[in-house]
Sequence to fold (320 residues):
Amino acid sequence: MTFVASVIFAVFSIASLQGGGAAAVSASPEQRPTVFVVMAEKRAEYELALTGMREIFQGEVEDFDLARDPERVQAFITRVTTYQPDLIVTFGSPAYRIIRARAGSVPVMFSMVAYPHKLCAAHEEPWGIALEVDSGSVATYLAALSRDEIPAGSRCRVGVIYNPELSSGMIERLILAGPELGIEFVTCAVHSKKESLRSIEDLVRKVDLFFLIPDPLMAGGKVFDRLRLECFRHHRPIVGFSRQYLSMGCAACIGPDYRSIGRSTGEEANAFLENPGTARSGIVYPSRAETMIDRDVATRLQFKIPEDLESRLPPWLKLE
Fold:
């Protein structure tokens, strides 16, 4: 798997182990629902999500590692046919693609998926937990980071370069969430890495900081190197989507809290199995996120991160 793909779809980190309370399904032992959780391969972040799901879901949870092996896939489908679980939950896009068409009448919900609207077929209503952090949480974090840098009554201008074929939905959600929190997203749509390279310097000059989204056109290689260079030249901090980017020159990051995503998955499974006839929730974007800062990088960029940043953040965005 390439570096960029690994960053985007595994998000390269072991996330926070915190999570809030939630109601779980109440059922007698003989009525406990059964959920099969399946992943295409074992990953540390999937294991964290599975732990979070088990904390919330009080039915039976059986987990399966397909190991990208056709024989294991067939063995799993045979078990599904034989035991007919109440629900299948797939962790990650590959597992969903493998299982969705083979699950028969058993409902399938995805979790830990980046860009879920691209995952499902045109006739299919997406249902599950996204990897993308809720746009309101992102805007809240950016506002808290920039509060001491932006004059009172002014908006913080946040630059984002994106591929509209992949990330337009994310950008629309960010733009809607920004104004109430004093954030103005200044966006630039590109369709190739060459366009990205040409756009970086001009956009960096127009903004107060840059938010790096998990888009393959921006997340690694020469494009990211150029972005980092221009941001250092113009003293503009980069906020990344994963803790891995702190070691690559970002001043801060906001990324998924995998255990919390698992808990959200358990909550959604509970709600569905308590009343299967109700409408499904569609795509759920987690509000809880992992946040981190690098004050040394911020100082080199002459960007002042508030000393009391942690106290300004809501509990679901607590700094690591």
The two ends are 28 Å apart (CA to CA).
